[in-house]
Amino acid sequence: MRYDRILIAPDKFKGTLSATRAASAMCSGVRSAWGEAVQVLELPLADGGEGSLATLHSLRPKLNLRADILPNASGLKRSVCYLASETDAYFESARLLSLNFRGNRRLPLLDRTSSGLGRWVLHMLAQQKKNLFLYLGGTAVCDGGLGILLEFGFQLLDPKGNLVHSLRNLPNARRLIPPASFTSIEANIKMFTDVTNPLLGPTGAAKLFGPQKGATPNDVTLLEDGLGQLSCLWAEFSKQSETDWPNGVGAGGGIALPFLGMARNRVTLSSGSLFFLEESGLANTIRPGDLVLTGEGKTDAGTLTGKLVDAVVHLCRQVGADCLVVSGTVVDHDKLEAANYPKTIAVSTNGIVPSRKVATDELSRAVTRALAVV
User: How many domains is the chain partitioned into structurally?
Assistant: First the structure.
């Protein structure tokens, strides 16, 4: 053993372990390998996708847990938790719009909506919250915030003046009409994404993520055209000369778009991974010579597009700490090697994700085996 201190900073292992349980399992693996001689610090993290709210609450336990009744992606009412203080409120989109919810998954992608997120924001504005924090990743929608737009009372019109209220005819939208009562959003809206992908193009919301959410090739073509039209209309509304949206606007199916269009001067779009590195203190705690353990459910090429594990790997390089990635499964080895990734180990050697019942033990044993040869 050549380390005096190990920092454990995983994301959730999607479908099996929360980040907190993953960190605990990794710690158990460290103790099995090296006993009590090494100092271990557990810092479970998130990246702006699923698990962000739970991780934030563990870091800020004084925040109050609240609930609201909102329509999910399929339009069915759902009780959703969020965190709040007197002036601020925090919302994880995946808790309402996740593809893991059976009702959301069963409905065709073109019929899913982000309206519930818009309704929550309106509720918080009515309560005069000054700062809204939105974690956007992990949704089942790809509507470019069309549901949010309609929830705020905006209208879309086609060339004949007919209302456009569905993704199926979104490519026909030519005019964006604000509600008569709309003035401006009086709160700061800080949005965090788990990827850096753009809205449009081969790595955008429709072409890259649409098929993962159930889009057919025809759906992808329609969505790409519709989101492109929506992007132009919001740029025109916000008096931008170009559709120059920040990196990451393709996250969550483009649900950041209406907020950027309605209140660009009060809205920011940032990396959720970097937010949690700062919030947890890892960015200030890590020292040269430390060993940092991180991991996630699946490490692949997508990890390189702003995921938590990638942010931890880059932080270790900057500081001069060693890093070991232990994930549920690992694929795209060539792309990870091209990115000069550190040693990356898969818990599952056959590509099958462990069940929740055995995931903790398997992750712990994988860490023990990895440290045996360090």
Answer: 2
